[in-house]
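Reopening this ticket.

The earlier resolution said the output was attached, but the attachment link was broken on my side. Pasting everything inline this time so it's all in one place.
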Amino acid sequence: MPDEWFEPLLRAAVHEPNPSFNRQLVEPAVAAFGRRRVQLALLAYLDSDVTSDIAGAARAWYWAQPHPTYDRGSNTPTADSVAEYEAYGDLRERYRRIALRRFVTETDLDVRRCLLPGLPLDERLYPAELHDLVSRAVRIARTSSDEYLRHRVEIQVARRP
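Inline output:
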């Protein structure tokens, strides 16, 4: 795929409102341009000041992540898929920090709805200086007038070990 298609492809993925359809844009971008480049571009959208870009980047992020693969009949991820997952830990950490800050500071409901499913709410995943933001994010979602946020936060909090 020509390099000049990278930006239009990512922009289309970010602006696709259906989180299932954007997969058809994100996965080819990852295959053609590499996971790191795609994730870095999505982080830039997430860190922008445009609410539709923030929401779209959060929706697209799911498909840009490495997902585990398993050998037939096994419940253990393959060594290669574990290695790939670990290779992107730095970008996952950046995503968590930016997404947490965005969830707390952005009041746009679509942004919050798009961020929450992929936002770990376990303080242990964040440095001490962000623990207050995790608590604030939980409080914002629990006290939201939006039923989805109130329901989803309980799922997120229940996932804590």
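Reporter confirms the inline version is readable. The mean pLDDT is 95. The radius of gyration is 16 Å.
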